[in-house]
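Hey team,

Sharing the Methylated-DNA--[protein]-cysteine S-methyltransferase run so nobody has to redo it. Sequence (109 residues) first:
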Amino acid sequence: MENSFPKRVYQLVQRIPAGRAATYGQLAALAGSPRASRIVGAALAHAPAGLPCHRVLYRDGTLCCDQAFGGKEVQRQLLEAEGVPFLPDGRVDLKHCLWDPTEGTGESL
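Structure output:
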């Protein structure tokens, strides 16, 4: 799995700082396969322990499905503890916390 797609996804997820969130599609694009958001989800279902997978959301800020990451309530609690803002309808406010992988690096994508 030296330079495999799942490994690239794991490396990206590891870079998402507390208080920020990314989408499955965003990670797929950054990992080199913009249409592979479902494959990102499959990779995260088998992610190594300790990876902050709770910071990955659907494109509209909806929390992940109930069986992943301990369920929606656990995911929400983890995100709230990190200061991630939520909208009144329960979705994450991506306008204010979407991860920019170039933030603070001086890089551009």
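Residues 25 and 90 are 20 Å apart (CA to CA).

Ping me if you want the raw files.
A.
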